[in-house]
C-alpha cells in the first residue's frame, strides 16, 4: 500500500497495461474512462484522502491520530493534525512531488495511444496508397519526366527551399518508376504493419520524394499527409492491429507452451537493415543527394537506432540497455502523439478563425459558391439540390465555422469532444461526396481518428475480427491457450528485432 501512496507503480517497461493517453493503471475491469488522447483525466485509482494515505504509508493504524503515532499513548501534540503540512508525509515528499514522480514514471514506462496511433497509421497509409493507385495512369504527368513542372524548374526551387526529394537524384525515367513503386510498396506494408519501424521511414521517403518534386500538384490533404508521414516515424504505431503484433503474439504463445521466454530468431530484420543502410549510403554520397546536414543526421540516426534496438533484443533482452531504449522510445512516441494532436487542433483552429474573417462566411453564403463550380461538382444534380435550399446552406456554413473553432476547446470535456468529432467526420464525408475531394477528406478523417475513444476502437477491432472469422474461418492452434484476461496484442510479449 505504501508504494501506491508514494506514487510508484509496478509496471515494467516491457509489461504495461492496455492504456492510452490519459489512461490509468488500476481502474475498474473493463472500464478505461480516460484512455483517450486529449480526454479529461479522472481521479487516481485510490479514493482515500491524503490524510488516510499518509497515515497508512507512515505505518499508523487506520483511525489513529498523528499525536498518538508520534508520542506516548494518550498524548496529543499541538499543531496541525498529522504532525506536518497537509498533503505531505513526515520526512517524505509532498503530494505534488509524488504526483510529478508518478507522471514521469507513466510517461517513460507506458506507450500511450497504441490504438489511436495504429488507426492513424492505417488511415494515412491507406489514403496515400489509394491516391497513388488512382493516379497510376497519370504518374509521369504529375511527378515524373512528363510533368509540366519540369526538371529545371524543380531543381531551381529545391535549391532555394532545401526540400528533400529522391527524384532529383536522377532524371531517368527508370529511377522515377523505382521511387514510385517503392512508395506504393511501402504504403501497403505500412498499412499491414509489417516491419513498421522500417516501413514508416520508407513511407516518409516516398511521400516527401513525390510531393516535393511537384509541390503545385497537391491540396490540403497532401499537406496533412506530408506532415503525418514525418510524425509516424517517431511513433510506435505497430503495437496493435499489425503483422508485427501478430508475430509477437505467436512468439508469446510459443514461449508460454515451452515455458522459456526466448527471443525468436529474426532473419528478415537484419537483412532489411543492411539493405536500408546500403540504400542510404548511396543516397548520401551520390552527387551530394543529401546536402542538408539535418537530413543526414535524421536518416542515419534512425538507421543506427534500429540497429541498437536489434542488438538489445538479441543480446540483452532483459538488461538495462533494453530498458533504456524502451524508455527513450516511449518518450519519443508520447511526444509525437502530442504533436499530432496539437497539429490537428492547429489545423481546425486556423481554418475556423480565417473563415470568420471572410464576408461570405459571415453572411452564411460561403457554401453556395463552390457548389456552382464545375471543378467541385462531381454530382451536379445533388449540388443544385443543396444550393437551392437557402436554410441548409446557412446552417452548413455557420455549422462548419462553429465546429472548427470550438473543437480545440472541447478537448476539456470528453463527451462534447466525441460529439464534435462525429460532426467533423460527417462534414468531411460530405465534402468527399459533394465537392469531389475524397483524398482530402480521407486524410482529415484519419487525422481526426487520433481523438477516437479507446473503448470504441477496441469494439471496432473486435467486430472486424468476428467478421473476419465468419468469412475466413481458421482452425484454432493446438496447445495451451493464453491465460484468462491476457490479450493477444498486449505489449508484454517479446518483440522481434528490427520492425
Automatic annotation (TrEMBL):
Topology versus the membrane, per the UniProt entry? Multi-pass membrane protein
Give GO cellular component annotations, separated by semicolons.
endomembrane system
Q: Where are the transmembrane segments?
A: 173-194, 224-243, 264-286, 292-312, 324-351, 385-407, 419-437
Q: Where in the cell is it found?
A: Endomembrane system
Q: Where is the composition biased (Basic and acidic residues)?
A: 1-18, 31-45
Q: Where is the composition biased (Gly residues)?
A: 60-72, 80-90
Q: Where does the record place the region Disordered? A: 1-100, 472-499
What's the name of the protein? HTTM domain-containing protein
Amino acid at each position: 500500500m505504501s508504494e501506491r501512496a508514494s506514487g510508484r507503480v509496478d509496471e515494467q517497461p516491457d509489461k504495461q497495461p492496455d492504456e492510452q493517453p490519459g489512461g490509468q493503471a488500476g481502474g475498474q475491469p473493463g472500464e478505461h474512462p480516460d484512455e483517450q488522447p486529449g480526454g479529461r483525466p479522472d481521479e487516481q485509482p485510490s479514493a482515500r484522502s491524503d490524510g488516510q494515505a499518509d497515515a497508512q504509508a507512515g505505518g499508523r493504524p487506520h483511525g489513529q491520530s498523528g499525536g498518538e503515532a508520534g508520542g506516548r499513548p494518550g498524548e496529543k501534540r499541538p499543531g496541525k493534525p498529522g504532525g506536518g503540512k497537509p498533503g505531505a508525509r513526515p520526512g517524505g515528499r509532498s503530494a505534488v512531488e509524488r504526483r510529478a514522480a508518478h507522471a514521469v514514471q507513466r510517461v517513460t514506462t507506458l506507450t500511450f495511444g497504441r490504438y489511436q496511433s495504429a488507426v492513424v497509421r492505417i488511415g494515412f497509409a491507406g489514403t496515400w496508397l489509394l491516391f497513388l493507385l488512382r493516379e497510376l495512369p497519370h504518374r509521369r504527368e504529375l511527378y515524373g519526366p512528363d510533368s509540366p513542372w519540369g526538371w529545371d524548374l524543380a531543381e531551381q526551387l529545391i535549391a532555394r527551399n532545401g526540400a528533400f526529394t529522391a527524384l532529383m537524384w536522377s532524371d531517368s525515367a527508370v529511377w522515377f518508376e523505382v521511387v514510385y513503386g517503392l512508395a506504393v510498396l511501402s504504403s501497403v506494408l505500412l498499412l499491414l504493419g509489417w516491419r513498421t519501424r522500417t516501413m514508416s521511414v520508407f513511407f516518409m521517403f516516398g511521400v516527401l520524394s513525390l510531393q516535393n518534386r511537384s509541390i503545385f500538384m497537391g491540396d490540403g490533404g497532401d499537406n496533412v499527409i506530408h506532415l503525418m508521414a514525418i510524425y509516424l516515424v517517431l511513433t510506435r504505431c505497430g503495437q496493435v492491429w499489425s503483422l508485427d503484433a501478430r508475430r509477437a503474439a505467436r512468439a508469446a504463445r510459443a514461449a508460454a507452451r515451452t515455458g522459456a521466454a526466448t527471443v525468436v530468431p529474426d532473419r528478415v530484420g537484419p537483412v532489411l537493415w543492411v539493405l536500408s543502410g546500403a540504400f542510404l549510403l548511396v543516397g548520401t554520397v551520390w552527387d551530394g543527394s543529401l546536402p542538408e546536414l539535418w537530413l543526414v543526421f535524421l536518416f542515419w540516426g534512425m538507421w543506427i537506432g534500429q540497429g541498437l534496438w536489434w542488438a538489445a533484443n538479441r543480446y540483452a533482452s532483459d538488461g538495462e540497455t533494453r530498458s533504456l531504449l524502451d524508455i527513450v522510445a516511449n518518450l519519443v512516441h508520447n511526444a509525437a502523439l502530442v504533436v499530432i494532436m496539437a497539429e490537428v487542433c492547429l489545423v481546425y483552429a486556423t481554418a475556423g478563425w480565417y473563415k470568420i474573417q471572410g464576408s461570405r462566411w459571415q453572411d452564411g453564403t460561403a457554401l453556395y459558391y463552390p457548389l456552382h463550380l464545375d471543378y467541385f461538382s462531381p454530382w451536379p444534380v445533388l449540388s443544385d439540390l443543396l444550393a437551392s435550399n437557402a436554410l441548409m446552406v446557412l446552417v452548413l456554413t455557420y455549422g462548419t465555422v462553429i465546429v472548427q473553432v470550438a473543437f480545440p476547446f472541447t478537448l476539456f470535456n470528453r463527451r462534447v469532444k466525441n460529439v464534435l468529432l462525429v460532426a467533423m467526420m460527417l462534414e468531411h464525408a460530405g465534402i468527399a461526396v459533394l465537392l469531389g475531394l475524397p483524398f482530402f477528406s480521407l486524410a482529415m478523417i484519419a487525422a481526426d481518428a487520433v481523438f477516437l475513444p479507446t473503448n470504441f476502437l477496441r469494439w471496432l477491432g473486435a467486430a472486424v475480427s468476428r467478421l473476419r472469422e465468419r468469412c475466413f474461418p481458421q482452425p484454432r492452434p493446438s496447445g495451451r491457450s493464453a491465460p484468462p484476461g491476457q490479450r493477444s496484442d498486449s505489449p508484454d510479449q517479446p518483440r522481434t528485432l528490427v520492425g
